[in-house]
Amino acid sequence: MVLFLLVIILAIVLGIIGAVAHGLLWLLVIGVVILVIDLVFAGLRLRRSGRTAQR
After folding, report:
1. Would you list the domain boundaries of the chain?
2. pLDDT tens across 29-55, in order?
3. How far is CA 49 from CA 1, 7, 42, 44, in A?
4. Most CB atoms closer than 10 Å: which of 14, 17, 20, 35?
């Protein structure tokens, strides 16, 4: 869970720097891609851990 939050913070920071700094739009794109990948990974992980064995 800590890794998930760190990656979210990293994506937000890259997005802010990419949006503010002139000519660094590619950082915004990288931040968005990292954010989407992290959210997909977290969704798959939560879906997989949500299943319990039926007795």
Report:
1. 2-46
2. 888 888 899 889 888 888 877 666 566
3. 13, 20, 10, 9
4. 14
